[in-house]
Amino acid sequence: MNAVVRSSKFFIGGKWVEPHGREVAEVRSPADHSLIGRAALGDAVDADRAVAAARNLFPIWSQSSIDERLAVLRRMRKGFDEAAPAIEEHLIREIGLTRMVAQGQSMMCRAHFDSMLEILPEYPFTLSMSGGFEIVREPVGVVVAITSWNAPVNQMLCKAVPAIAAGCPVIVKPSEHAPLCGILLAEAMAGADLPPGLFNLVNGRGADCGQRLAEHPHVDMISITGSVAGGAAVAEAAAPTIKRVHQELGGKGPNILLPDADFETVVPRSVLGAMMVGGQVCAAPTRLIVPAERFEEVARLAVAAAEQIVVGSPDEPATTYGPLMNEVQFVRVNRMIEQALADGQPLLTGGPGRPDHLSTGFYVRPTIFGPVAPDADIATQEIFGPVLCILTYRDIDEAVEIANATDFGLAAYVQSADPVMARAVAGRLRAGYVTINFPAWTAAAPFGGYKRSGNGRQYGVWGLEEFLETKTIIAS
Ligand code: NAD
Predict the structure, then answer these.
(1) 210 CB less than 6 Å from ligand 1?
(2) What integer best gives the mean pLDDT of the chain?
(3) Which of 132, 351, 386, 416 could form a disulfide with 422 if both were Cys (CB 3.0 to 4.6 A apart)?
(4) Which residues belong to the active site?
(5) Model confidence band, residue 5 (pLDDT cutoffs 50, 70, 90)
């Protein structure tokens, strides 16, 4: 298999180079544990090599014209497009995504390119201000993109594309739990005739290769997508060199059902939203907050929706969600379900262990608890598994209070037939990305978190500006 052979190298300075780190990870299918490939995991020396390649290009790429950047982005997009079917097949095997989700992630990747190709020609990199000074927006420098495994290629590209558009060379370090998809992406970029050092890929563990990248004096910015602990570790490593740190971290999405919402439609959609990708989505609406007097009705609709969910092989078209990513995830999620039961939280459906029809693979049942106490661990901690909590409120103030009562503030949801009321509630939520009645996704709208969900924004103009410095020039 090609991936097994090619994954022993890293893409640095426009070439495939032998890793210095000696560790080799076996990558196994989460569905049946078969061997998919082997990937080298690099060390601090590999990190240094990638930084040197990116640093070398910075003086040139930072001065590139908008036309040059557009041409590069178009070639990258073409390279991605050609590789997309193979990448999707691979994501099904390495991560356990269903084909529909894998294709959805490719759609998002294309949208990041298209969005930047649209923004870049119009973006005001130089502004003459009325106070008699000039503002120049310049690339921040060498950028490191550290990513998690749940939407890996999308995460790599939604950082690399705007960074490159801004004039920054990029080093991508994917999760050590899903190292092969980065190799496939780098193969696509290797064929896109990029300036050597513009797009670099090293695989490695967070505590080793990642740590070195985060503390490296020649790295100017880190953009991490990962857990709160990972984000904090990166910020700590980056602190002595005062580099910019952009964090896209965990979530515990509240989903408020206002009394006038169409429960028959909205409850099943909410359950599916929470269970997508087996709940391994930072923005998942995992806390369904409903009027207390309607709890029985919501519980009935939610359980019925969960019973429609097909857990199974990610290859099967009928599958709603496949296995969880790996054993660590499987054990952790099951433990949290067991702990919630031990704490006396009422189980409505699901529970620990695999669904009855599956005897192997990291499959977890669609699980719903309710009514859950708002301060219960299961209602406040990120589970990153197919577990939905239903919480009840007596009035809108209490609904908002419950929604805001976690350390997270990433995605939040409001369901209502009344746009004015829904907008008023949305305005009171402490979250970076609030949607009303499940609108379609757009790459133009910024995404990011409040509180421990992170800082900074991805996508659209805001995503580009993350990678820009602001220079003031004043003449006497
Ligand atoms: P993780 O924090 O374990 O790892 C994320 C990345 O950080 C990996 O590449 C890892 O190697 C690296 N890392 C960890 N410690 C590091 C260190 N000390 N120095 C440098 N790099 C380090 O997270 P995970 O398990 O891969 O991902 C799941 C988490 O990601 C969940 O909490 C989820 O909510 C979050 N997530 C957030 C978003 C978002 O956009 N906000 C999107 C997807 C996932």
Answers:
(1) yes
(2) 97
(3) 416
(4) 248, 282
(5) very low
